[in-house]
């Protein structure tokens, strides 16, 4: 499922993620994929999907708690506008902001960077849904690449090609039902 949020939050999110991306490239002695932000939010600056060493990433300058909570509240608000429940009906409390404990910022440095075909949660670690929120303005998939390709289970020839359009938000199951890849990107996004 993909929908464009009714009120774009990108204008407030881009100034937050851009310095994180820039700072994470300058951390020495650390795999370039990871940097730690407030509330366990990790910044990834390459196409790696996991930390192969299992080591805890080095700290970056954290986002202020208030700023991070504001971003979370904005996204939870948009989810509610679409009728996506952020209330745990069993416990009766809001749990929407807990989603952000595992939030990632993925930046493709260009130069043909891509994700090979994979499943986000092959080990059933508790994640259920992957969401992607595109921040790249004026992206031209024909010249800059970066197309998301989904391979529905049981469909050998059918694929869904999804362009990384600014302010587009995607949701899909994180398990084996949605193998996907990101084709090479030739510009920073």
From TrEMBL:
GO terms for molecular function: ferrous iron binding; hypoxia-inducible factor-proline dioxygenase activity; L-ascorbic acid binding. It comes from the Eukaryota. InterPro entries: HIF_prolyl_hydroxylases, Oxoglu/Fe-dep_dioxygenase_dom, Pro_4_hyd_alph, Pro_4_hyd_alph_FE2OG_OXY. The keyword Iron applies. Keywords: Dioxygenase, Iron, Metal-binding, Oxidoreductase, Vitamin C. GO terms for biological process: cellular response to hypoxia. Its cofactor is L-ascorbate. Gene3D superfamilies: q2cbj1_9rhob like domain. Residues 99-189 form the Fe2OG dioxygenase domain. The keyword Membrane does not apply. Pfam families: 2OG-FeII_Oxy_3. This is hypoxia-inducible factor-proline dioxygenase. It comes from Rhipicephalus microplus (Cattle tick).
